Amino acid sequence: MAAKSEQTRQLVADVALKMFREIGFEKTTMRAIAQEAEVSVGNAYYYFASKDELVQELYIQVQNEHAEVAAQVLNDVHDLAGRLKAVLHTGVDVMAPYHQFGSDFIATAIRPTSPVNPFGEASNAAREASLAIFRSAVDGSSPAVAKKLREDLPELLWLAYMGVALFWVYDKSEGQRRTRKLIDGAAPLVARGLSLAKIPGVSKVFDDVLGLVRSVKEGS
Amino acid sequence: MAAKSEQTRQLVADVALKMFREIGFEKTTMRAIAQEAEVSVGNAYYYFASKDELVQELYIQVQNEHAEVAAQVLNDVHDLAGRLKAVLHTGVDVMAPYHQFGSDFIATAIRPTSPVNPFGEASNAAREASLAIFRSAVDGSSPAVAKKLREDLPELLWLAYMGVALFWVYDKSEGQRRTRKLIDGAAPLVARGLSLAKIPGVSKVFDDVLGLVRSVKEGS
DNA sequence: GATCATTTCTGAACGCGTTCAAATTCGGGG
DNA sequence: CCCCGAATTTGAACGCGTTCAGAAATGATC
Fold it and tell me: Which residue, A30, A108, B23, B217, has most beta carbons within 10 Å?
């Protein structure tokens, strides 16, 4: 029965995520996970090559939940500011249970060799899923976003989202109220700022920003 | 002789920084530092409570060097774009020897409990020194920056600088050419973007951005 | 049911950052 | 010169993430 193997894997992952949530990253030792799941340490390593891979498991799960919840909410909102708010707020919502875990997660994720590094190979799928949310938020908005912005905007918004996530990690206000405030304030501002692209003097600056983004994105 | 104590401290710090530069963060173990400096492991810990504090030593040294070099270069440049370029390029210059060390440094620094966290208490002095560079770059520029921007701009630029540093860490192009390109492209764009603040329709958006920044910066 | 390769599992061991009780060295007062 | 409290130094020990040789369970083949 191949299910037995998968069962052990799930057991370890479930125990780990539960402990991450309840007692944080550092106190959740591999030995403690193994003991709680009633397997040997080596057995946990048979399924997860490192503690980081257990973090990746969490990352994927949170990401999937975000995509699901955001898609739901986006059905009812049509202006760009509202859609941005929706995506960002739902993002913070799904991360909420892991707030105390956040700084350790980011310290792990920021290392280029980490499987959870959002810019890295190992999380291509997760990043694409996350990018798709922003693409949907932009493409589905009415009034429509200026054509020339439509291609690069989702990626820039996703980058901004990484910034919001960083802000959220450091946000010690109760319920991370300041992050909510930032989202509520920034989303309409971004929408209004983008609408300025029609003003002739401003348009050129926008073009140059996009040009710079594109030239820097590619290597060389 | 109190100098003997200081001598040991310096010896440990010097050996550590040299090893950080030459073989990176992970291979520079506390045991290796102790052995190279010909002291016991415990003795190294007598002067530095953790490996992180040795990283802090490096951080302060790099910061001081940046302040010094930047102040020098700023004497000869007067337009905002040029001054920004100068500060950013010199920043990258002084970090250069530690590029391979960068990701480990940032992973350490991003943890709120770390002494090198740029937003944390322990590096107030270093942050103020860094902020002062940007304040000088803004205040000393001619033509002058719009009055209403002058107070908050240095902090925002410093924040952007943190972003550039992050980009630099991930930049695997030879000599970090892409980071240089980003700086050369972004600095004039920022200067031009700021000059748009005079356009009536744009001015209001700027005001709102500043208002948001201020309201989010303070708690609650 | 016996055989055997493969998958799954075990726990001791390694090197790491860090801690700490004890040993050593130092410097000033008798 | 000697003594003593403080500063400095030592190295064994702890818990951590990770590794790995080998034991146990599994399932395909006859």
Answer: A108
